[in-house]
Specification:
- The structure holds 2 protein chains of 2 kinds.
- Chain A has helices at residues 2-7, 20-47, 69-77, 80-111, 117-129, 136-145, 152-156, 163-174, 178-186, 191-202, 204-220, 223-228, 237-250, 254-274, 276-285.
- The longest helix of chain A has 32 residues, at 80-111.
- Chain A folds into 2 domains: 2-67, no CATH class; 79-288, MetI-like (MetI-like fold, Orthogonal Bundle).
- In chain A, helix 4 (80-111) packs across helix 11 and helix 11 packs across helix 15 (276-285).
- Chain A has 15 helices and no strands.
- Chain B is 72% helix and 1% strand.
- Chain B is built from 13 helices and 2 strands.
- Classes of the chains: A mainly alpha, B mainly alpha.
- At the A-B interface, helix 2, helix 4, helix 5, helix 6 and helix 11 of A face helix 1, helix 3, helix 4, helix 5 and helix 6 of B.
- Chain A: Keywords: Cell membrane, Membrane, Transmembrane, Transmembrane helix, Transport.
Chain lengths: 289, 316
């Protein structure tokens, strides 16, 4: 109770003695624990020796004889290092191209006057409504026609232009004082020089926010790569994990599945725990996505 | 104002209107050229994968191709009527509606609870926010792998701890009456923390002094929630509802991993139906017709919500 009161000590004086907010808080704490249980089980099951048998698999108390056997098995059965490289390659490729397209388009919307600006703005806005995952059927055919079926480039291409990123950069560029650009103009800087040396360096927080959203969403993409990729050695982590799970489920190797899942999500979780604040503020801006 | 913008004043011109318009277009285009060039890379990819894709869906929905190699045949609206008459499509639509309502309402309600409880920032609330946000980050496929075990009959996590209390253990993913609700649990678990962020941001706009004044007037926590906080959060609600609905249509990877639409089509959702038609039955016509219907429904919904938003902003 003391701890509870300590938590509410910065609440407005008048409301400090109300019971309902405290009940709500207690319920939230309880649910937060429930929310963590799947992760807890994943950790415990990964370290549990296979000799404990299937009946103890659900036990959330860690085994007294932890083992890394499950991680080794998952590493050997699944081709995780390869999947990891494929996913990293897809995410990096998408992000690099996006940086170019959204910088240029964002600058045009932020600083240039041109005929048909409103129309083109709405054309971009349309992408936010037409969620790419719904267009898998026509886009798969296009990718096949372009000869990119079963190629990692084919997985990346539909995401090269980003309306969300363009709007984010437009907003960032608009906040930069025009005086800076005028000074550069007087010094004879060309358009690309101004973008490169004034706008981009001053918008790094927006770039990092966009990078977080872009990488997490494409790290987690499943359906589109599932359709485009056919060869096992080109699978990204998500597709690899689903195949791996389907195989291991047949033999009831739940410890190995937990270990495989852990390997797939660990990079994102670790990055999140380090850059928590930045992640959360980026995801708030992702609302307009 | 007119003093500041002398260019806006009517200026006498000697050129005839037609030529004038043409010349204005030409100079306008020339002046706009740098902007067009900067927009070109984005527009190329948007044209290929967004507008072009839309167009191809329209065209493909009008043609039929029986095998991958067979010539295409114009069938008009046959694909659309075929899809509408297909019980597995209408079943998927019904499932998807249940799934949308049954995931949106609980996850938004939970998100609001979390945001209200954790609106003040300190070490404890930050840790709790992080815990609730973790599921947002992981791939749906990874969440499915974990929940496959949680829902495993007899030895799974749920049965091990909770199932003992029930006389008969349900087969969570194997029973057609329960499976859809089981996969809804995963979605709620995964999305509530995401929507919480928007409510946390929205709560910043609730003025503290109004809350205090209301309290002095004798308004309890529920009165303050009902008459101050909720009205302030209306735009957030609308916005989160749109996202939750979009997610209910697009974020269905767990169906692929866990149930494949089964048992007996109980978890068949629209996107899974489209995938099956395209990839397993090679029926591009039907897949495109189903895509078209889904897109139309979603666009009507977003247009409606944007109009509501615009009316509210423009209204008194």
């Amino acid at each position: 109770m003391k701890l509870f009161n300590a938590l509410f000590k910065d609440a407005p004086l008048a409301t400090r003695n109300e019971i309902t907010p405290k009940l709500g808080f207690a319920l939230t704490v309880l649910l937060a624990i429930v929310w963590l249980i799947p992760f807890l089980w994943m950790g415990v099951a990964t370290l549990r020796p296979p000799s404990d048998g299937i009946n103890l698999m659900a036990e959330l108390m860690p085994s007294l004889k932890p083992t890394l056997d499950n991680i080794r098995d998952a590493w050997e059965i699944g081709d995780f290092p390869r999947y990891f490289l494929n996913t990293a390659f897809i995410c990096t490729g998408i992000l690099l191209v996006q940086f170019v397209t959204i910088t240029l388009a964002g600058f045009a919307f932020a600083r240039l006057a041109f005929a048909g600006k409103t129309l083109i703005f709405y054309l971009f806005l349309m992408q936010l409504m037409l969620v790419p995952v719904l267009l898998i059927v026509p886009n798969l055919r296009l990718v096949a026609q372009l000869g990119l079926y079963d190629k990692l480039t084919g997985v990346m291409m539909p995401f090269f232009a980003s309306a969300f990123g363009t709007f984010l950069m437009r907003q960032a560029f608009e906040a930069i004082p025009t005086e800076l650009e005028d000074a550069a103009l007087i010094d004879g800087a060309g358009l690309f020089q101004r973008i490169r040396h004034i706008y981009v360096p001053l918008s790094l927080p927006s770039f990092s926010a966009f990078a977080i959203i872009s990488v997490t969403s494409h790290w987690n993409d499943f359906l589109w790569p599932l359709m485009v990729i056919n060869s096992p050695d080109k699978r990204p982590l998500t597709v690899g994990l689903s195949v791996f799970t389907a195989t291991a489920e047949g033999t009831q190797a739940w410890g190995t599945i937990a270990a495989g899942t852990l390997m797939v999500i660990a990079p994102l979780l670790i990055t999140f725990l380090i850059f928590q604040k930045r992640f959360i503020s980026s995801f708030v801006t992702s609302g307009i996505k | 104002m007119s003093l500041a913008e002398p260019a806006a004043l009517p200026v006498a011109t000697s050129a005839p209107p037609r030529l004038h318009a043409l010349r204005r277009f030409a100079t306008g285009f020339k002046a706009s050229l740098p902007a067009y060039l900067l927009l070109l890379p984005s527009l190329v990819f948007l044209a290929l994968f967004t507008y072009g894709a839309m167009g191809r869906v329209f065209v493909d929905a009008l043609y039929q191709r029986t095998t991958p190699k067979a010539p295409v045949r114009f069938v008009g609206l046959d694909n659309i009527t075929a899809v509408l008459a297909d019980p597995s499509f209408t079943g998927a639509v019904v499932n998807n509606l249940i799934y949308a309502v049954g995931t949106a309402i609980p996850s938004i309600a939970l998100a609001l609870l979390f945001a209200l409880a954790l609106s003040r920032t300190n070490a404890v609330t930050s840790a709790l926010r992080a815990a609730l946000f973790l599921p947002v980050l992981i791939p749906m496929v990874a969440a499915s792998a974990l929940f496959l075990f949680i829902f495993l009959p007899n030895v799974g996590l749920l049965d091990y701890y909770i199932g003992r209390l029930l006389p008969v253990l349900p087969n969570w993913l194997g029973d057609p009456d329960i499976a859809l609700y089981a996969i809804m649990v995963i979605t709620i678990w995964k999305n509530a923390g995401y929507y919480m962020l928007f409510f946390l941001a929205g709560l910043q706009a609730v003025p503290e002094d109004v809350m205090e004044a209301a309290h002095l007037d004798g308004a309890g926590p529920f009165m303050r929630l009902r008459y101050i906080i909720l009205p302030e959060l209306r735009p957030t609600f609308l916005f989160v509802t749109v996202i939750a609905t979009l997610n209910a249509v697009t974020q269905v990877d767990h169906v692929f991993v866990m149930t494949k639409g089964g048992p007996s089509n109980a978890t068949n959702l629209v996107l899974f139906y489209i995938y099956e038609q395209a990839v397993e039955h090679y029926d591009i016509g039907k897949a495109s017709a189903a895509t078209l219907l889904t897109l139309a429904a979603l666009m009507a919904l977003t247009a409606l919500s944007f109009r509501t938003l615009a009316n509210r902003d423009g209204g008194p």
